[in-house]
Amino acid sequence: xTIRLSTKLRNNMVGSAGVxxxxxxxxxxxxxxTQPANADAAVTGTLLGTITLNSGAITAEVPASQTITLGGTxxxxxxxxxxxxxxxxxxxxxxxxDATQTGGALAAAINANGIYEATSxxxxxxxVAPPGVGAAHNGLTLTTTVTTLTATAGGAIAGGVGAVNxxxxxxxxxxxxxxxxxxxxxxxxxxxxxWFRIKAARTDADGASIVLARLDGQxxxxxxxMNISNTTxxxxxxxxxxxxxxxxxxx
Length: 251
Fold this sequence. Notes:
The structure is a single chain. This protein has two domains: 4-57 and 164-247, no CATH class; 65-153, Alpha-Beta Plaits (2-Layer Sandwich), CATH 3.30.70. The protein is 11% helix and 37% strand. The strands form four sheets. The chain has a seven-stranded mixed β-barrel with strand order 2-3-14-19-17-16-15. It starts with a strand and ends with a strand. By secondary structure, it is mainly β. 39% of the residues are buried. The mean pLDDT is 92.
């Protein structure tokens, strides 16, 4: 077996997001040839088909987001609430040098909690909802509590669009995850399947990246990381995934 995990996926697994949530409503691409040396690498081979739910056309997720603009020269950001959830539960973020440095510290605190993702530039912190959430967080209020500093939210969480026809895993059991529903595609090119890449619900441009969650593995009719009905793809023909189970070893 040659399962390979990207840097982002490994970070998620040692943080608060697991495999199922990372790839909720994602897709699987099946390609020819030999898989890359690691899942951070750009894709190789010809794309034979994109596995979705019931071979449906995929709509990539657009993450919900919002900004916080910092101001002031001293004090702290004590809490950041999305709805009723404090996304910096490990404590207040203290002012550091200026708004730019403080924004970086706030983004780091949000990222450490592992629910929302955050980036910072020139004192403006941009929050992004977790993958798989889609439109569910649209309209949640974004509020802060501060001491002396100002932290102005740009409005409610907004802009999220849910993925359509993405893949989901069932509830974990015995350290394993298995697919739910019919995972299939219609072949877009002819050739022999060699490997697959699972991608998250958001757009993945196929290049080298350490910030995109991916999982690669081998393809065969039986005994591989992912077993499919036929490894020979013919343009326009249906292909169905028979089994795909991801297991975390106990030792």
